[in-house]
Amino acid sequence: MLRPDPLRDVVLIVDDAPENLSILHTLLDRSGYTVLVATDGAGALDRARRLPPDLILLDAVMPGIDGFETCRQLKEDLQTRTIPVVFMTGLTETEHILQGFQAGGVDYITKPIRPAEVMVRIASHLRNSRLVVQTRAAMDAAGQAVVAVDPNGDVLWMTPLALSWLRSSLDAHGRLPAELCSWLHDALEAPEVRPFELMAASEQLVVSRLRPGAQDEELLLIQCKAGSPGPAALMQAFRLTPREADVLYWVALGKTNRDIADILGMSPRTANKHLEHVFEKLGVETRTSAARMALNVVTRRSMQ
What we know:
Blueprint: E1 10-14, H1 18-30, E2 34-38, H2 41-50, E3 55-59, H3 67-76, E4 85-89, H4 94-103, E5 107-110, H5 115-141, E6 145-149, E7 155-158, H6 160-166, H7 178-189, E8 196-200, E9 203-212, E10 218-224, H8 231-238, H9 242-252, H10 257-264, H11 268-282, H12 287-303
Parallel strand pairs: 1-2, 1-3, 3-4, 4-5
Antiparallel strand pairs: 6-7, 6-10, 8-9, 9-10
Helix pairs in contact: 2-3, 8-9, 9-11, 9-12, 10-11
Protein name: Response regulator transcription factor
Organism: Paraburkholderia rhynchosiae
């Protein structure tokens, strides 16, 4: 699903009270935001996954899946994990406030809502989020496979290239493999620890600490081991985007568009569109010709 307007920040409001939805929708719309709404936790999860918003205003107390559980599920999904969640509720006891932050919220607004306060907090969190997004986009554009994790090894975010390499190695909750988490623990204690080698997605990968990130993030750099073929080499050789390089890599391994779509988490139609762009950049018309050119890059790398 396409974003309604790429120049407007998208805010998802989740509240089971129609009057609250109406007030907030009007307030945000007049302030220039694109507004999505959901009246329960299940609806919020569905909307956030189909069209990830830039920020979520989430009521804590709702029938069915309450706001705390909704937030926990959002933070368990790599697609929605980085969306800032601001809780809204009439619960003001310390234990409820702590529960919101423990579930993954970044802020807590008490009801009745004060419009000026809401708008200032939304603007602040969107500003912070935008800086993070721009940093990741710069890394992605540079063809870097970077993963941000917390000290326990939980993945906070990763660039598309890193995801394409590590997808098959992550567990159901998006955590890094146990052996890599163990290495990270050692690396935090002793910075001179050697880089970690991992076999994933038919790649021999080398993982090293890049630098500490913001808010207890650890940034890990993922690279293909010297002599090992990979999308990064194809991206550099043919001036491809990270996604185009991923598609060409799997074409060279004999995968169909449907296989590639499943591996990379996209639709077959999207995979085909990326492949069309690859053909254009390589100046070829068939998968066989594209695969041959990709394999030539692999051969040159292995001889270096």
